User: What shape does this take?
Amino acid sequence: MKSASQEQTRLPALEPGSNYINPNVPRRRVCTLQPGELPARGAHLVTPWLGFAHHGLYVGEGRVVHYGALLYDIVRKPVEEVTLESFAGGRPVFIVEHGEACLDGEEVIRRARSRLGEKRYRLFTNNCEHFVEWCLHDVARSFQAETALAFPRLIGERIEAALMRMIRRVFSAPTLEPSRSRVDRK
Assistant: This one.
């Protein structure tokens, strides 16, 4: 059985094919957007990109608002409104269904468009996922960034646990007493 601290440090699972890091609670569902299908207005979209998930918001009429950063912090682009095809870039698109309450779809779109042209992309503090989570929940958060930042700590904790198990085994190993011969016992 896992302790509470072990449960909290467990990395969230990637949804198959989407590269979306799914927060543990509340559970979110990720569904593939079928060819020709259009999501609901204000829908959270992700597409796999360079080993990560790129996030955007569907605003209707085949358009998506997203943080257009390319190559993470090297080439920066502003928050922009593009076609769904441009957002996808030939990759599959997934819809993230939130298990928790989100702002109204029209408010989500208003918030997304209010930041069009913004050029303050930062990989760990203001990326495309921070942007989408802020539009949907009024909290700028990136589960990908949190997982990436937690990774070195998790590796350190696993190394520490392995070393402690090894030390306990070495120091708690039963000592063998020299056997006495029958002559010595008399």
Residues 6 and 154 are 10 Å apart (CA to CA).
